[in-house]
Amino acid sequence: MLVPVGHTVGIKLFARGVVVVKLSDGGTPAKECGLQTGDVIVKCGGVSVTSTEQFQALLQKNGDASTDLQVRRDGDSMTLAVEPEQNDQGVYCIGAWIRDSMAGIGTMTYYDPATGVFGALGHGITDVDTALLMPFSNGSILPSTVKAVKKGEAGSAGELRGDFDLSRDLGDLYANTDCGIFGTLETADYGLGEAVPIGEAKPGAAVIRSNVEGDSVEEYTVEILKVVSNAADGRDLVLSVTDPDLIAATGGIVQGMSGSPIIQNGKLVGAVTHVLLNSPEKGYGISIQRMLEAAETTQDRP
C-alpha cells in the first residue's frame, strides 16, 4: 500500500566527486592526460574530492607538479597523471569545466507509510551538459510551490517554475537511479493522501496526480495507449493527456511533472517520465514495479 503523492518538491543533489562537463579548446593538461567529458574525478593527489572549490584548492596546493587524478569512467576506475598550468591570473588550471551539484523541481510519486521511503521523478537526474546520470553522494528534497507554467508546444518543451522553501528539508535522498530518485521522508504531512494498492498498468483510461498551480494537487484524466514489455529506458507506458483543464494549463506534459503518479482502477501503476517533444499531449511513463525494484536494490548502498 503506497500513497500516490503528486506534489512538486525542490531537489538538491550533490555528486560523489566532480563531473567533467566540458574540456577547454586547444591543447590543455586535461586533454594531454586523457581526461574526457563525463569523467568523474574522485581523488586528486590521493585526497578525496568533495566539491569544485576543494578540487581547485588541491590544484593550487600541488602547483605545477604532476598530480594523480583518480577517475571513474563508465563504471571503471583509472588513474591519470596531470600537470596543471598557470593561467594569466596565476591560478593553476587543467582546462576542464567541472560540476559538483544539481538543483531543480520534480514531482514526488509515492510515499510508503510503513517504511518512510519515497520515490520521485521516475527517471534519474542527469547532468545538463553530458546527459549522463549524476554520480550520487547525498541530497535532499525541499518544500515547493508552483508559481508559473511555461506551456509546452510542438517542438518546445514546457516547464513548471516553482519556489523552494530553503529553510527546511522534507527528507534525505539515498539514491539517484535511471528509475528515479529515492529517499526517506522526515514528515508525513506534506499534502499526502490515502494509501492505495499497487497494480499493473493496462491500456485504457487512467488519471495522474499533479501539482501545476500553487500548492494544490489535482487529478487529471489520461489514456494509457500502450504498455511496453522490457523497455530498457523505463518508458514502459505510452500516455496521452485527455483532460482539457490540464491541456489548457500546461499544454500537456511539461518538465517538473516527471514523477506524477498514474492511477488506474484505484491502483498505483506508474509515474509520468517524459514528453514527446513534437506532441506535448503525449508522453511516457515508468511502471511502479520498476521504481520499487530500484528503490529496494539501492536502499542499503553506501
Describe this structure in words.
The chain is mainly beta. The protein folds into two domains: 3-13 and 106-298, Thrombin, subunit H (Beta Barrel); 25-94, Roll (Pdz3 Domain). It is 11% helix and 49% strand. It is built from four helices and 20 strands. A hairpin with a 2-residue loop joins β18 and β19 (267-276). The protein starts with a strand and ends with a helix. The relative contact order is 0.19. The model has no long low-confidence stretch (mean pLDDT 92).
Short description:
With 302 residues, the protein is mainly β. Helix content is 11%, strand content 49%.
SS field, number of helical segments: 4
Biggest β-sheet description = 6 strands, antiparallel, barrel
Whole-number count of domains: 2
Distance between the termini: 27 Å
- The share of residues in extended strands comes to over 45%
| Overall average residue pLDDT | 92
Helicity level: 10-25%
Stretches where pLDDT falls below 50 for ≥5 residues? none
Q: Compute the number of strand runs.
A: 20
Q: Which structural class should the secondary elements be placed in?
A: mainly beta
Order of helices and strands: EEHEEHEEEEEEEEEEEEEHEEEH
Record the SSE blueprint.
Blueprint: E1 3-4, E2 8-23, H1 29-33, E3 40-44, E4 47-48, H2 52-62, E5 67-73, E6 76-82, E7 85-86, E8 92-93, E9 96-111, E10 117-120, E11 136-150, E12 159-164, E13 171-177, E14 180-185, E15 204-213, E16 216-227, E17 237-241, H3 244-250, E18 261-264, E19 267-276, E20 279-287, H4 288-298
Antiparallel strand pairs: 1-9, 2-3, 2-9, 2-11, 3-4, 3-5, 5-6, 7-8, 9-10, 10-14, 11-12, 11-13, 13-14, 15-16, 15-18, 16-17, 17-20, 18-19, 19-20
